Amino acid sequence: MDSTALARQKRRIDRLSENGLTRSSVIVHQFCKQVLQELKPYLQNPSQGQLLLTLLQDANRAASPTNVSQVTQISPLRYPGGKTWLVPEVRKWIRSLPKRPTTLVEPFAGGATVGLTVAAEHLVDEVVLIEMDPAVSSLWELLVCGSDFESEQLFQRVLSFEMTNTNVDEALAGFATSLPMAAFATILKNRVNRGGILAPGASRMKSGENGKGLASRWYPETLVKRMRGIRSFRERLRFVSGDAFELIPMLQPEHDTAWFVDPPYTAGGKRVGGRLYTFSEVDHEHLFFEMARCMGPVMMTYDDVPEVVSLAAKYHFEILRAPMKTTHHEIKNELLLLKE
Q1: pTM over the 0.85 mark
Q2: 3-class secondary structure per residue, the chain
């Protein structure tokens, strides 16, 4: 490069420097070159600094799964497929909506971690939990709709129960004659079965954590504390026992209603849902159809399988992928499907 060209380049760099721009060398992977080209106008515009910082923070958050131990546990159930890891993303989603929803509906409540958190933090005025499984329903029916006397019966039963194989056999052998006894049986079975599985045929823990056997997941004071906590904000909860597909159309026309939908994962030929849940059969195409008709915003969560991706595209859902850690400590992506 001759002296004239060097001088011209120096003058150009000096002008850029006066405007706060500097020249930098960046090592870029070939797969990322196109992205860098698209970002160039943003990198040269000082007003875009905050936007780029937000994008970086989102990218960092998406690159690593949520540390579940740092999320407050509200539900007394250790539910297979529970969504504790997703709680921060649900908070962010609700707060980002153009208008604050008055109601959140969770049609497949299960352990209800998301719905309970939204109600506890008053992110909406009311959370509607829907559950079809009679065993799980008995617990939510008592905590949300039951009397103080019934709830205290359950709490004292949990606190006084001596965890032995014989006592577990006796407690689960008979037919529950009251709502508190049915709810207690649900909690007990959830705590002593492997993985918290309530479906018929589920096996019990043997060695448990640190060789503690059945008692390794039995924390009576903690369980009662969580259940008392739920009772303290039950005025923001509504529980309905029944088939989600029969109840969804009744709530669809509400503009101020948001939906969090976490169905049993049986799409794409996956049969794990049948092993984990008593009621696992879901018409996924029909579910997408119903959710697409809802007037309010929707977040659905699913396994990342081609069938679901195809349905999401067909019904015009935005597709995001979120990393989560499995029970075997493997990190995999789950789909977050959004509709406003």
Answers
A1: no
A2: CCHHHHHHHHHHHHHHHHCCCCCCCCCCCHHHHHHHHHHHHHHCCHHHHHHHHHHHHHHHHHHCCCCHHHCCCCCCCCCCCCCHHHHHHHHHHHHHCCCCCCEEEECCCCCCHHHHHHHHCCCCCEEEEEECCHHHHHHHHHHHHCCHHHHHHHHHHHHHCCCCHHHHHHHHHCCCCCHHHHHHHHHHHHHHEHHHCCCCCCCECCCCHHHCHHHHHCCHHHHHHHHHHHHHCHHHEEEEECCHHHHHHHHCCCCCEEEEECCCCCHHHCCHHHHHCCCCCCCHHHHHHHHHHCCCCEEEEEECCHHHHHHHHHCCCEEEEEEEECCCCCEEEEEEEEEC
- In tens, the pLDDT along 159-170 reads 999 999 899 999
pLDDT (tens digit per residue) in 26-82: 777 665 677 777 777 777 777 777 666 656 655 544 444 444 344 578 999 987 666
- What pLDDT, in 10s, does the model give residues 248-289? 998 877 789 999 999 986 654 454 444 443 445 788 999 999
Q: Mean pLDDT score of the chain, rounded to an integer?
A: 82
